[in-house]
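Thread amino acids onto this structure.
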């Protein structure tokens, strides 16, 4: 007779995840029982308190290395590093969501997402000053999924974490206050394509289970070391798993959702999603490849090379043709995914450290860039067309200068974090014998520099016109997020050594 034995759970090791999850549940209760007038303040208090508490606890367990929850969660150096990065980016993202001074109608979110765009109901909700406080509940669930995703040690828990992270994002993308139809279209595209990607992931997990007889990543690795006669099944399964994860990082050819979602989503959500989701997805991708499928390195390495090259070149080339700032940053994100994949392809400790460093620095640049985008406005709201940024450097030199710092960092110009992180990734790839891939990456960087510099030229070397947008005065929330992002971008470009040593000391994934 089989008896069930409960798995041992190290609650201290998974406490950061539990803190955010419990806060999300409390947030649901707030929406159900607290009067509408008081919800926003209480939701913000819960969100900021949970993120700070989880970050503090994570700091206290920074040296923990344990596999817990029946082998479903691996709390190791890379996981803790990425969880810390997600929490910091979530804190900055929450500040952008909290902003209410930029738009005359309130925050960036529809007063009632269920109301039809432009309907009488929507105008009525707006006139009453309704706010979409459910955004905080969705935000906390998304962060819960991200923290779990980077630590998932089996395919089932990885899939669950993927869905907990994704489903709230699908909803948040469709909640923009202005340009509602564009926002809802973006949410629908994101949901439909995301559902396909999730289906590929779970189907791939089923095939891998059929091959290995287990969904545990270490168990899959062990099966690969002893079974050699069923290669096609596991290769097809791995390919499907990679489709699901490549979709989340926005890599070519699974990037089609990226420009539409980046453009249509409320800008605070775009910034948060562009920064934190990339950290979570790359964390899961590296754990999948390095822990579960290290025995197939010579097979998946080729796939990563091809996707990296396509992402760098396609992202950089198509970004040149964009006239909308948010779409340009979307294709930039596609290209950046390709650069990060160069580090993933090395499958070395130096490559892991370089990818972690890249994700940290890129996250702050992304949050800061979209903070600036949310501030540049005209009578209809955010002014994202490039023509409306002409002469912005003369009208608002401080904001234009800060945005230029972020653009130069994305281009990889020295004295910004972008140069150091690209150098780290390229150095790791050269050490791993992938010099040819670095040559392609450098060529793509040169191409990408054109559209970054083009925006700077438009801002500083064009005369302001009657169509030039203005910069709205933000509250302390956006100001703090923007100042922190700009400061870290410069500091990591000038004195990166402390962070480089920190990510190097994180070590490798345990199994």
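Threaded sequence (511 positions):
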């Amino acid at each position: 007779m089989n008896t069930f034995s409960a798995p041992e759970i190290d609650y201290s090791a998974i406490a950061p995840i539990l803190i955010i999850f419990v806060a999300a549940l409390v947030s649901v209760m707030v929406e159900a029982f607290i009067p509408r007038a008081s919800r926003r303040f209480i939701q913000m208090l819960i969100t900021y308190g949970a993120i700070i508490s989880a970050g503090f606890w994570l700091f206290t367990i920074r040296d923990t290395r344990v596999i817990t929850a029946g082998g479903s969660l691996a709390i190791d150096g890379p996981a803790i590093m990425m969880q810390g990065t997600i929490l910091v980016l979530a804190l900055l993202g929450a500040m952008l969501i909290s902003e209410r001074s930029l738009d005359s109608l309130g925050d960036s979110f529809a007063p009632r997402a269920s109301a039809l765009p432009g309907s009488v109901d929507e105008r009525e909700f707006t006139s009453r000053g309704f706010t979409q406080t459910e955004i905080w509940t969705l935000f906390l669930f998304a962060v819960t999924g991200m923290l779990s995703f980077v630590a998932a040690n089996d395919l089932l828990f990885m899939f669950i974490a993927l869905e907990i992270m994704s489903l709230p994002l699908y909803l948040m993308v469709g909640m923009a206050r202005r340009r509602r139809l564009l926002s809802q279209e973006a949410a629908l595209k994101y949901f439909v394509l995301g559902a396909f990607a999730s289906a590929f992931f779970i189907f791939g997990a089923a095939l891998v289970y059929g091959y290995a007889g287990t969904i545990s990543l270490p168990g899959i690795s062990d099966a690969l070391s002893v079974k050699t006669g069923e290669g096609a099944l596991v290769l097809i399964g791995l390919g499907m798993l990679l489709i699901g994860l490549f979709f989340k990082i926005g890599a070519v050819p699974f990037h089609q959702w990226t420009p539409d979602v980046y453009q249509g989503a409320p800008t605070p959500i775009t910034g948060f999603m562009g920064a934190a989701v990339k950290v979570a997805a790359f964390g899961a991708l590296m754990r999948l490849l390095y822990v579960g499928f290290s025995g197939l390195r010579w097979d998946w390495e080729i796939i990563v090379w091809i996707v990296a090259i396509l992402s760098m070149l396609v992202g950089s080339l198509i970004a040149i043709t964009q006239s909308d700032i948010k779409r340009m940053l979307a294709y930039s994100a596609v290209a950046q995914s390709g650069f990060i994949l160069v580090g993933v392809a090395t499958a070395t400790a130096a490559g892991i450290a370089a990818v972690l460093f890249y994700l940290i620095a890129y996250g702050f640049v992304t949050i800061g860039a979209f903070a600036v985008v949310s501030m540049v406005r005209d009578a209809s709201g955010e002014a994202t067309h490039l023509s409306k940024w002409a002469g912005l450097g003369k009208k608002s030199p401080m904001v234009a200068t800060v945005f230029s710092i972020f653009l130069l960092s994305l281009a990889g110009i020295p004295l910004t974090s972008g140069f150091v992180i690209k150098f780290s990734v390229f150095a790791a790839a050269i050490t791993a014998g992938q010099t040819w891939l670095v040559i392609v990456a450098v060529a793509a960087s040169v191409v990408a520099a054109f559209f970054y510099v083009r925006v700077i030229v438009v801002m500083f070397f064009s005369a302001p016109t009657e169509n030039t947008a203005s910069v709205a005065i933000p509250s302390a929330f956006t100001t703090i997020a923007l100042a922190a992002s700009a400061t870290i971008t410069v500091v990591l470009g000038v004195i990166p050594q402390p962070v480089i040593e920190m990510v190097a000391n994180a070590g490798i994934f345990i199994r």
